[in-house]
Amino acid sequence: MDVPEAPAPGGAGPVPEGVDTMARDRMWYLYAAGADRPPVPPVPPGTEPPPGVPVSALPVAPRLPDAARPGDLTALPPGTVDLLEDAPFPAGRITGVPDDRALAHALVAAFGVQRREPENPFNDHRGYASVRAKFPVQVLVNDRGRRRVFDPYRRALVGLAGASDTPSAAREVLLTGRFTRLPATYRWYRGSLVQLELGIALRAVCVALQLLGVPARVRLPGPGAGERLAEFGLTPGWEWTLPVVVELAGDAPGGADGPPAGDGAVPDAVMADVVEMNRAQRFPDTPAPVDTAVPPGTPDSGLSWAEVLWRRTSGRMPRGLFGNTARPGPVPAAALDTARAWLLTPPPGDVLRAAAGALRVTAVTQSVTGRADGVYEVTAGSYTPRATGPGVPARLEEIYGYPLAPGNGCDVRHASVLWFLSFRPRDLARELGAGGWTAAQYACGWAVHGLTLAAASAGLCARPVRAFREVPARRVLGLPDDETVVLAVISGSSRFSGPLLDLRQ
Is the dihedral of CA 19, 21, 27, 32 positive or negative? Predict the structure, then answer.
């Protein structure tokens, strides 16, 4: 990579405060690669939303791959919710399910549609968090040579035109994100947001497999990973991330070592940057066993797994309004400890564990029983205060990108806990190479999915966001200038409720 070099002014950090939010990720990536003062990428023409058109109405790719064949369906067996209702959260497990049905139930438990909220202007609730409810991660299944995609609405596996019919002994789930599921106005954010969701989806499927007693191994993108896209008929390749593979049995098909054969011509400079950052992954071609995706030793919640998955929410608003609003109130200290246990449960394998170890967790607490309001650094053994005193959530609301407005709720000032996950990109690049950027996003998504389950078990909402202005947020949190906040979660008690249509099966 050709990276311009220039010394950074003392104390200013590698990315100046006034840089467009969407460009910051590209600049941090270049900084990790060696540019002390990365150039500000130009905003390409045509990437601003038309006046009066909300981002949610902008065109995106369809929710299933173009190659999906709607008439080629294999319905998955019903009864997943019944199995989950009989399993206490978090220690309960599902036993006695035949191997040929366990994967089907795991897919529905991990990714199936849970409910419809009639007043919600976005998509139906599923088993994992999503940016603007676009759900850009596709779940591909290779079941001994039958290559299909999971449709969470029809709870079916759908055939793919152009998919390989080469025989295989492997049973595996491949997770790949489609950048174009997010509108072009997201620019460089398309890369990081989709890769964060890959980490969320990875934790979701690993939790479901553990519940059903299905052993699994995780294979990160390595030599030949790009060839797997064409194997499922996913073209052009540039629209898709390199897949993260969850292996259940057999040996994964091998692929040629090199760039994906079907990447094709990338249509614009921004997408070329996004694809370049994703393709920089080059991890060892060795799968890592999933030891645990559920933290051991966390106390019984009195709820079932079905109830916790049903409760998981990013907050509510009435009458089709955007955002969400929380109500202030005390939260028991045990809820904070449970959230910490889920956040810090390590992902599988040396690479992801190194990335998770590089993440710094900061909690901003308010009205947590037995703990002073303030800013804390969170580790497995302690909550170390950086600053104590009231009012930090209100200060953070002032730098939040979606403020309180007639059509938008904002819950930051009333949040019980705000979680921030950050890392030093250059330090991680020294350890893991250029792929450290993507590995950190996978590890962060893994952690945040666990946090959403912990919050649900405590009756709290958990809203993953990337909308805090980075430089002032670092000042409030007491983070150094060479550290980037990769994701935050706003957690508290929802003010609004409403009818929920149960879509579980």
Answer: positive
